[in-house]
Design brief:
Blueprint: E1 3-7, H1 12-23, E2 27-32, H2 36-39, H3 45-48, E3 52-55, H4 61-68, E4 73-76, H5 83-86, H6 90-110, E5 115-121, E6 130-131, E7 137-138, H7 145-149, E8 164-165, H8 179-197, E9 201-207, E10 209-211, H9 224-233, E11 239-240, E12 247-252, H10 253-265, E13 272-276, E14 281-283, H11 284-294, E15 302-303, H12 320-326, H13 334-346, H14 354-363
Parallel strand pairs: 1-2, 1-4, 2-3, 4-5, 5-9, 9-13, 10-12, 11-15
Antiparallel strand pairs: 6-7, 6-8, 12-14
Helix pairs in contact: 1-10, 4-6, 6-8, 9-11
Length: 368
């Protein structure tokens, strides 16, 4: 059995990954700064009682050096998460994501490990992949400020033609539309470049919208399903930017944890960037209605018809590479697992801060 370091192991995905690794019999060390916004100042005891836990921030080089001592491989999940917040807390996101990763890698030069698996994000794609009416591939679809102001939400082709969103594969060019996306791209490239230079294996997983029990319900910058659940739990309508027809790919946290384990083991994955999602698009409005039904709340979402800086219109994953290299296909669908999420949410308390977050964005001119 191996000894793994899981950075961010007290977080949503990290705890699920740790539990699966512990069930396999591995020895774990977890480093996590227990950010107040995510954890409310309290660590989750369900996993941490069974691991070597370091409460610390990887922006501290001493913490990074202590964390990697004696481990065989690293799962690097530690990151600040949130598109909207990243647009006005730039130093926090660059420090928490890129400086922290740089410190970790700097220490690994002297103490290399067998492999690093880093959590990247679908946000690096910006807009997803599109096709023209004649079937031509469009990788650089954009929405102009004038389009957004006039509430024409969908990108148009180079000749002004309508486009059809299609599954986004890893060959699609990167298009960074938020500071969060920029930091995730830097994270993945730091890991891949450094690992290659120093003879370590590395894999970057571009995660789509992860959902499931254990997500931080009081963090207004977390995943959209957790934000909606917090609103519904407090008998408030989920707030949806734009018209609610934007499409996303929702993947269960159990599938994501399994993908991380596969990425650590599969020789063919070394040096690769791989999408991890469910491969099935859902509109955001559809998801809000489904979750309300699962939670027993007769509350329709509030469609804001406002655009938020850094948001994209459509993006859902092509999982062909994950299946080919990792043998990964998702076991769970959104419809199958919403009931599980609703049952977990019903046992929680949530401080609904979605309106507060919206006001923060409005005050900085980041909502149009």
């Amino acid at each position: 059995m191996a000894k793994y370091l899981v950075t961010g192991g007290a977080g949503f995905i990290g705890r699920h990954l740790c539990r699966q690794l512990l069930d396999e019999g591995h020895e774990l060390r977890v480093v996590d700064s227990l950010v107040e916004q995510v954890h409310g100042g309290q660590p989750r005891a369900d996993v941490l009682a069974d691991v070597d836990f370091i409460n610390g921030d990887l922006r501290d080089r001493d913490i990074a050096a202590r964390a990697i001592r004696g481990v065989d491989a690293v799962y690097h999940l530690a990151a600040e998460v949130g598109v909207g917040q990243s647009m006005y807390e730039i130093d926090r996101y660059v420090g928490g994501n890129d400086l922290a990763t740089a410190n970790l890698l700097q220490e690994l030069i002297a103490q290399p490990v067998e492999r690093l698996v880093v959590a990247s994000s679908m946000s690096v794609y910006g807009e997803g992949l599109y096709a023209t009416p004649s079937g031509e591939r469009v990788e650089n679809a954009q929405r102009t400020a004038a389009q957004v102001r006039s509430r024409h939400w969908d990108p148009l082709g180079p000749k002004g033609e309508p486009l059809t969103p299609v599954a986004t594969d890893e060959r699609k060019q990167v298009s960074l539309s938020s500071i969060y996306a920029l930091t995730k791209f830097v994270q993945e490239q730091q890991v891949l470049i450094t690992a290659r230079a120093y003879g370590m294996g590395a894999v970057a997983l571009r995660l789509f919208n992860v959902f499931g029990p254990g997500q931080a319900l009081s963090n207004p910058y977390t995943g959209v399903l957790a934000i909606f659940a917090s609103r519904l739990l407090n008998n408030e309508a989920p707030m949806i930017f734009e018209d609610g027809r934007q499409r996303r790919d929702f993947v269960h946290v159990g599938d994501v944890a399994r993908a991380f384990r596969l990425a650590m083991k599969c020789p063919e994955a070394d040096g690769e960037i791989i999408n991890i999602g469910a491969g099935q698009p859902h509109t955001v409005a559809e998801v809000a209605h489904l979750l309300a039904t699962a939670m027993g709340r007769d509350i329709a979402p509030e469609i804001l018809n406002e655009a938020r800086a850094g948001d994209i219109r459509h993006c859902f994953g092509d999982l062909s590479k994950a299946e080919r290299l990792l043998g990964f296909t998702p076991e769970f669908s959104l419809s199958e697992k919403l009931g599980e999420l609703a049952e977990w949410v019903a046992r929680q308390q949530a401080n609904d801060r979605a309106q507060e977050a919206r006001r923060e964005l409005q005050a900085r001119g980041l909502v149009a």
